[in-house]
Amino acid sequence: MTAALIGRAHPAAALRAELDRAVASHGGLVLVTGEAGIGKTTLVTGLADDARRRGALVLAGACWDSDSAPGYWPWVQVVRALRRELPEEEWARLDTATLSALLGETAGSDGFRLHDAVTTALAAAAHDRPVVVVLDDLHWADAASLRLLEFAARHTWFERLLLVGAYRDVEVEAPGHPLRELVLPLVAKATTVTLTGLAPDEVAELMSRTAGTEPDPALAAEVHLRTGGNPFFVEQTARLWHSGSPVSAVAPGVRDALQRRLSLLPAPVTRLLTDAAVLGREFHRRILAALTGVPVPEIDQLLARAATARLVTAVGDGRFAFAHDLVRESRYAELEPAEVRRRHAAVVRALDAEPDLVPLVFAADRARHAYLAGDEVEAERAAELLVAAARDASARLANDESAGHYRRALERAAEPRRRVVIALDLGITLCRRGEDEEAWRVFEEAVALVRELDDDALLARAALTLSRTAPTGSRLALTSDLLVAAHERLAGKPAEPLSLDRVTLELTARAAVLARDGEDDQELSFTLWARHDLIWGPGSARERERLTDELAVLARRTGDRENEFFAASLKWVALLEQGDPRYLDQYRVLRGLTVGSGLPGAEFAALLDGSIVGALRGRFAEAHADLDRVEELYGREFGYMVDHVRWSYLLLQGRFDDLAAHTARVAAGDHPHPDLLAALAAVQRGDATRQVTGPFSREFAPMWLRYQAQAAALTGDREACERLLGELTPYSGEWLVALYGCEISGPVDLWAGLLEAALGRHDAAVSRLTAAAASADRMRLRPWAAEARARLASALAARGAPGDAQRSAAVTAAVRAEASELGMAHLAASPSAPAPVPSDEFRRTGEVWTLRFAGREVRVPDAKGLRDLHILLGSPGAEIPAVRLLAPEGGETVVAARRLGGDPVLDEAAKSAYRLRLDHLDAEIDEATTLGKDRLAADLDREREALLAELRTAAGLGGRTRRLGDEAERARKAVTARIRDTLRKLADSHPELAGHLNATVTTGSSCRYAPDREVRWRL
User: Fold this and answer.
1) Burial class of residue 506, CB neighbours in 10 A (0-12, 13-18, 19+)
2) C-alpha 1001 chain-centroid distance
3) What is the CA radius of gyration of the chain?
4) What per-residue confidence (pLDDT) applies to 844?
5) pTM for the model
6) CA separation, residue 661 to residues 122, 627, 638, 666 (Å)
């Protein structure tokens, strides 16, 4: 450590010991604390110099005292320094889309991915040399930066990486400080070095070094008393003393000392520093010139005088920074509040007048000036700049910062329509951060304002925004009411009740017309994307293709590169779903848009799309490698999607052992329907005993349709086969595509062919399977062509017409060769025998249950407890809520309601939503009956009865409203009682089965069947 430090031998030795350990083995976290001016920066600067001499790579960043400072600002400086210091080839190995987004060079989204990318880059750099990261002024850090510091400290303990932070502990650790709860966990993990004031003899030594004159002991003691030994105050006092002023001129605060020092400079310099203080800790000379009206050459001369006085330092590229924040603070504090507002407004006007200067200023800086200008800047202009900063922050992965800008924009905006749009955007941002409660408070305020306005487009936007957040309970009721109201405003009251889906779809169409008529590109883009997502499902691909074309045109017209990319991405999906070979050309267009785009979201989607297309064309090794790369770059940022895509590859390859392990991993994560994946994997290997209950949401509906078709074909359920053929036939020639293209479930004709074969219609089966194989050939999707031909070979053998046996053998040989080359082991091997029918049975036929276990078979009458056990046996190991067992027909609406606690079972809004859903169900039942879809009509009628039962039970004795907690407890008691009652009765008729179930079934608020070995049930 440098000898220049006075009175810091012990702190310097403590830091040196930490550096020694980092150089020799592993690093850690060191926090240097103390009041303003106590010498924290000087101490860590000495450590940095020592580290450089010992061959360490030193990266530094400082925080900025501003509520509108860019998110992750100290880490931006660290990453910039890392890029500057490393050789180009080493940086190229570390650089990621996430790091580029952090630097503000590309767009992206917040989350774990950012923390992981920065930590990984630092750890990788530490492999070749020790690395020291110094973060100064953490008392001004944003919360996200402190979370990143904690993440890095937690995950780099065994790396040669030393993290050093400095902050004012007397401020941050005070009760009520916003960073207190974030700093305290850091203190628990860190070696803390706390600096206090210098001793009297050390004050004398510092005064002597600063002024060049030895003070007498009495003078040094007086300075020590007045300054508390604070080195910065001592230095300022010594300089004033050296200039002839008495030490009594040092005021209790540094402001007076700085004022005297600044008074020695020419007036133009001090005025310039005051203007610079308004700009911030760091500023650009050209911006300062525009603000003051002083020519740039003169600005350079004045800044040179300030630099000579050690009040500012040049940081390069025309940028300067105050040498100490206390300098800037003292200048800023001299301004009266009205003058502060006037000067911030002058910055806004200067930038508006010279647009070429705008790139030199962060969007967050422009927003800060507009906000602090108060009434000096027009409210709508301030809101506009704040919204621009919010969008910029989202693109830089800083959603915390984005939400702050939106809140300030909402505070400043006066025009009601703008307030609604800002509030809706703020709500969506909060939802992305997982702050649903605050998001819905904002949504509800926006909706209240919408109801006061006579604006059809705004009402539609609010309704569609809320509908895309997957609301439940009372929030679903609010959304439903809003959707219906918007629909009636734009389309009039319908003659008959419409389903909520129908209302939403019609609303998107009407809102799009309204946006086109008003030539509102932003509103039109929002509405078209909403419609695109809402219509997803079989038969919608042609319209989605048209929508993506229009969205691409809109994006190009408005310069929205990100939306242009996503329109191109979803167009190739729509073409593939139609069985159109042009999907490959469109995919190449997509790749062209990605090159050099600098958009992290687009780059993620392009990498994922490339992996999917590779797998579909049989390049499984490349596809899995691309997925590995996606996980390496983005971690879990995009939730379960990557896991699902890998599952689909394993399923298509027939890697059932790997698939089982991966499905378990998916189930342990956040995938919404792991039971559907497990059931699909089972039917693909010929096992129809693993059941799953639908229906599923729109984006999963094609997978559900595929599962039903395969299961019906395996079991030979003729009624189900006929029903499913009726559902599939309108889409002949198309492909089943789910999850916005992340799941390709094969050609429709493949699954229709299996159903025809199960019904014994061999000619039809051969025809459909031949068409499926031909479609896959045209699309160059080799794995699906092999899958279709394998099924075709079986259909030919079953038909047994002249020549079929030979043709079946030839097709089988070709399939095995192709599958062997592709790595589809299940098709390359000799056909295996069908899965044996399970020996154990728990199945209902009408009102009688057949129960077979351990060689004993009995038949017993229907009972609710048997139905509960049947559900549990169908999902071994899964926790099934008692409220689901109590009313399985009611769907998620009833289940979600009964699982909550404390509030009424159904408040008035929820009751309204139930009644609205009943109206929709009546319309859907009538429609299904008219179309001859009796099975669907029956399913809808069961849901209707369950909802009616729920309404009937919403009131207790004497009309008293029941509480949701009562409902959950009632479900627990009722289900537990009826399962126990059933098991008591089984103990007499089937003791072996009763003993097994008593040992493996647990009951309570959630119930579970967990056998210690696999039991294959025929259910």
Assistant:
1) middle
2) 37
3) 35
4) 82
5) 0.55
6) 33, 17, 21, 9
